[in-house]
Write the structure tokens for this entry.
Amino acid sequence: MTNIPVTTWSLEQTAPTDLLPAPAPEGDVRIVRSEVPSPEFSRFLYASVGGDIRWIDRLAWTYARWQEHLGRPGVETWVAYDRGTPAGYVELEPQDDGVVEIVYFGLVPAFRGRRIGGHLLSYGTARAWDLADRWPGLPQTKRVWLHTCSLDGEHAMANYQRRGFTLFDTKVEEQSEVTAPGPWPGAYPA
């Protein structure tokens, strides 16, 4: 198996005023919180959004592991719908001391390039900042962070920076090169 260098960039916002929202796209695009923990739906989103950019870490998760993760207080999934069809999602996960990570964010390939991504990221980031309002017992958010890497979409880093995220760490590591699995094996050409 071949190893390839992968650069990972970590970005953050340290105040709600850091957020620079993107305008809403034209058409019938709605963002809705998936309030019922659903391993099936979350795995569908994960595989559909990340299948062409080598998201593989959760593919081996069992149903029980998905259920455990999704049932944690403060873990939220916000889904963008374009005319009723799931177009992408953002997953939020609270951490210690008022920190919220945007763990996953992205669009299904067919919906990229339609100005949905900036809007979804803006909306998801705003929900990270007000997470404690929906989850009594969680501390108020003091910091929102995320990471992206050189395997992600070509416009990912620029989108994060346009939304007001600033770089705080960069790492380069060798990783095993894997074939993009697609939303199911063989969905994308090797």
Notes: Residues 116-129 form the longest helix (14 residues). The chain has five helices and seven strands. The first strand starts at residue 3 and ends at 13.
